[in-house]
Amino acid sequence: MVGVSKRVEAPSQGNREFTMTYANFAHIRDIAYDLTGITLSDHKQNMIYGRLARRLRALGLSSFDDYCNLLSEDSPELHEFINAITTNLTAFFRENHHFDFLKTTAFPNIIRKNMASKRLRIWSAGCSTGEEPYSIAMTLSATAGFSQWNAKILATDLDSNVVDKGRRGIYQEDRCTGIPNEYTRYLKRNPSTGEIKIREDVQEKIAFKQLNLLHQWPMKGPFDIIFCRNVVIYFDQETQKKLFARYHKMLAEGGYLFIGHSENLNRVSNDFTSLGKTMYQKK
Length: 283
Known about the structure:
By secondary structure, the protein is of the alpha/beta class. The protein has helices at 22-36, 45-59, 64-70, 77-85, 96-113, 131-141, 160-168, 200-203, 237-250, and strands at 119-125, 150-157, 170-171, 187-189, 196-198, 206-210, 223-228, 251-259, 272-276, 279-282.
């Protein structure tokens, strides 16, 4: 369990529907850390209140005391609790230089390296609602040389709700504005609803699964590429060290690791060579 941080009084309750004491927040913070490795600092109290107040209403509870009592070991509410507290900010082709690197450097190198096996494995760890793995899959589909390959993408997330949305591959039109013109051929627009669906041949490249990164991983690997972007910023440094050590073991020799723009491996791992712009290669 995470150590107790210096107490900061809970923000003013104002006209809040429910009272959340600091003891309530500390209890929720510790459960979140134990289950997910996510570190909730004291300034996240308002955010946690807003997300969990919806659960209290749905459950017909009158106080955070009642909700905290509900979060016992093996409680079915723990599943909904995890879904509620996790953050799922994403976009198609976010940090577009990563996908340019796939197209111009990583994919050509892997084609040469794996020509005999014609095998490619990519993992989007923290895939959220699917925009990242679909961006990878579209880039893969547009790259010459993979037509006869056994190429698969694994997309995982802690939140089962966003995994289900990603699996469906249907998005509002405004969510797709960041997709470069060269990849719009992989989209199908429903004229009656305005929704955009990812083309089936692109969807077929991806397997969506719910996965807690801190638990045992069922897959064997090795992966040629791992995307883990804007995930470890929610973990403390010790958890980050363990996670990147596991990624290192799961990557093929010379495999590539992509992390988020606000993340780095300084004082976390020496197992990767920096390629610049939060791109790394296994030593």
